[in-house]
Amino acid sequence: MNNDELYIKRCIELAGKALGKTYPNPLVGSVIVHNGKIIGEGYHHKAGENHAEINAINSVENKDLIPESTIYVSLEPCAHYGKTPPCALKIKELGFRKVVIGAMDSHDKVNGKGKKIIQDAGIEAISGILEKECIELNKRFFTYHEKKRPYIILKWAESEDGFLDKDFKPTAISNALVNQFVHQLRANEHAILVGTQTALNDNPGLTVRNTEGVNPVRVLIDFDLKVPAHFKVYNEEAQTLVINTIKEGTENNIKFIKVEKENFLSDLMNVLYKEQIQSIIIEGGGFTLQQFMNANLWDEAIVIKNEKLKLVNGTKAPEFDFNPHKIEIFRDNHIKFYTIFFNI
Question: Is the pLDDT of residue 144 over 60?
């Protein structure tokens, strides 16, 4: 690994600290290097606050070193005025010696413009350093802008003999260690979705407990509004989108969005895109999960299997014929991770 890759790797590490907190912005880290020594670093903490490059610049004690320094950034510096001024202009103004970029930003407001501003100012700029890793870091952001839909993660827990519950009644399958992992997953992603049956059977809150983090936006698919208003999914702990065929409108933290049953999945993708949801966990149940699989509409799947639990009868786990790219073992629970190759 050469020095450029080493410093971009550090940018990726820094950026990851804000996972789940920057929506609708991407995760970005930045490092400033002078004569082989890091003199400043920073990352984007949340939307509306300073971008990574500005935080890195602000952390440099001796600003006189900046014109002799290289700034590394995991994603192309922005070129547009949003809630903050363009970072590319700040880099130009301070006159860095060189700029090294991990991945280019495909978002139409940037898309090469940031790099061009820097090069037009006579500053050397190179890009595509650890590009695959930098795209992976922002798989949610890139999927959202390029595929016009959120990054989709299917998730379920099943018994050793392939059931989601016993005798169609709520059944604890995963252990306490895995539950902590699941809550961290919720904190990392933008939204979480369940169907009518799961909401009625389990009455889930779909919030983050057992760990620190922001509650995801809850998405309830409930065509005929069968889920009673006193159920947990309607409480005030998180923003909730209720996708149904009956009514539209907003009531406090609940937004009712009307769709047709025909072409439901493509309508749902349009709704989530308009609501700026960049990633979503599909938590079930079996019917909802199977719909996404049948449409080949997923990016990752996380399957928790309790190797010691046999349930014999109940809701069958979805049919899933793929090879995991990673397996993690939490005592008697195995978590299998699947990815449809992230190809843009």
Answer: yes
Burial 131-156 (b: 16+ CB within 10 A, else e): eebbbebbbbbbbbbeeebbbbbbbb
Longest dimension (CA), the chain: 71
The model's confidence at residue 341, banded by pLDDT at 50, 70 and 90, is: low
pLDDT digit string, tens, across residues 222-232: 999 999 999 99
CA quadruple 295, 298, 302, 303: dihedral, nearest 10? 10
3-class SS of residue 104: coil
pLDDT, mean over the chain:
92
- For 4-56, what is each residue's pLDDT tens digit? 999 999 999 999 999 999 999 999 999 999 999 999 999 999 989 999 999 99
Establish how many alpha carbons lie within 13 A of residue 18's alpha carbon, considering only the half-sphere containing its beta carbon. Answer: 24
Query: Rounded to an integer, what is the distance from CA 101 to the centroid of its chain?
Result: 21
CA dihedral sign of residues 217, 218, 223, 225:
negative
Helix axes of 87-94 and 113-120: crossing angle, nearest 10 degrees: 20
Collapsing DSSP to helix, strand or coil, 215 comes out as coil
CA 271 to chain centre: 17
Catalytic, out of 41, 53, 158, 300: 53
Outline where DSSP puts E strands in the chain: 29-34, 37-43, 70-75, 98-103, 124-127, 151-159, 191-195, 217-221, 240-244, 249-251, 254-258, 279-282, 300-306, 326-330, 333-339
Residue 205 one-letter amino acid: G
The amino acid at 73:
V
Is the bond into 285 cis (omega within 30 degrees of 0)? yes
283 is catalytic: no
pTM above 0.85, yes or no: yes
What is the band of 108 on the pLDDT scale with cuts at 50, 70, 90?
A: low
Quote the CA–CA distance of 281 and 243 in Å, as a whole number: 16
**Secondary structure of residue 46 in the 3-state scheme:** coil
190-219 pLDDT, tens per residue? 999 999 999 998 888 899 887 778 899 999
Place of tokens 């809550």: 183
- Which residue type sits at 257? I
